[in-house]
Design a protein that fits this description.
mainly beta, 3-stranded antiparallel beta sheet, Immunoglobulin-like
């Protein structure tokens, strides 16, 4: 039958409940964020899209982190729970790193 049961995905039930993006070196940043499951059921961990922006809020770099890359032992969020992540981000090009002044985060199911 080759059936696979996967955790439920409810895009409106997983929200980013707080985030910060700080420079730790000229080419490195620390991204912290909290995901909250507002549902009364176990949900799949979503992917996170990070967009780094310039002073005009224009995208400079965009990267998607899939659930296995987020560093959580489980690929699910328990009902009515929060999970906090912290990730080091390195920007390879110095000229790009100098232009970064903001960021946007989006949680989604690919």
């Amino acid at each position: 039958m080759n059936c696979v049961l996967a955790p439920l995905q409810q895009k409106n039930a997983v929200v980013i409940d707080g985030a910060s993006f700080t420079k730790i070196r000229p080419d490195a940043y620390r991204l912290n964020f909290t995901l909250r499951n507002t549902a009364a059921t176990v949900l799949a961990l979503p992917a996170i899209e990070l967009t780094l922006t310039d002073s005009l809020d224009q995208p400079i770099v965009r990267r998607v982190f899939l659930a296995p890359e987020l560093g959580k032992a489980s690929s699910t969020l328990t009902p009515a729970s929060e999970w906090t992540a912290s990730m080091a981000i390195t920007v390879k090009t110095a000229s790009t790193a100098e232009r970064i002044v903001g960021y946007r985060l989006l949680a989604f199911y690919p």
